[in-house]
Amino acid sequence: MPIPEYVADLREHVGTRLLWLPGTSAYVLRQVEGRQQVLLVRRSDNGLWTPVTGICDPGEEPDVTAEREVLEETCVQVEVERLLAVSSLIPMEYPNGDRCQYLDHAFRCRWVAGEPRVGDEESSDVRWFDVTDLPPLLPRFERQLAMALADDGPVLFGKAQRVR
């Protein structure tokens, strides 16, 4: 995965120490012939299917990040409909020793235009899946997708999201 320029600049000063970074997860939905579909990407680093995720640029609003990341990674234009959850993810360490912890903002998004295709090196595949025929997803993504599919629901924060 490419390292954003501002994170690379920070790394020059802090080395591999833990960085706290705001990020987003985008659950892009559309209806096709009465079937609900979700847009997923296959990550090139670990092969897992996930919603589009990304790091906020300095000063960028998280909803804008979600829309930008979807366009960059899938060539699909979306509009954020609502915030689903805000949660602190567990600290992680990358193969190069860099450590990060993300404050994830999960959003439900509506497909606006474009046919999905791999837009950058972060993904090896991108496609629509019927929500009744999904590839395996991590539990966090399953919970948030269920929230995205609900017509309306509360926004969950941290602890409340882990309980569900």
UniProtKB/TrEMBL annotation:
It comes from Barrientosiimonas endolithica. Keywords: Hydrolase. Gene3D superfamilies: Nucleoside Triphosphate Pyrophosphohydrolase. InterPro entries: NUDIX_hydrolase-like_dom_sf, NUDIX_hydrolase_dom. PANTHER family: ADP-RIBOSE PYROPHOSPHATASE YJHB-RELATED, GDP-MANNOSE MANNOSYL HYDROLASE. This is MutT/NUDIX-family protein. Residues 19-151 form the Nudix hydrolase domain. PROSITE patterns: NUDIX. Its cofactor is Mg(2+).
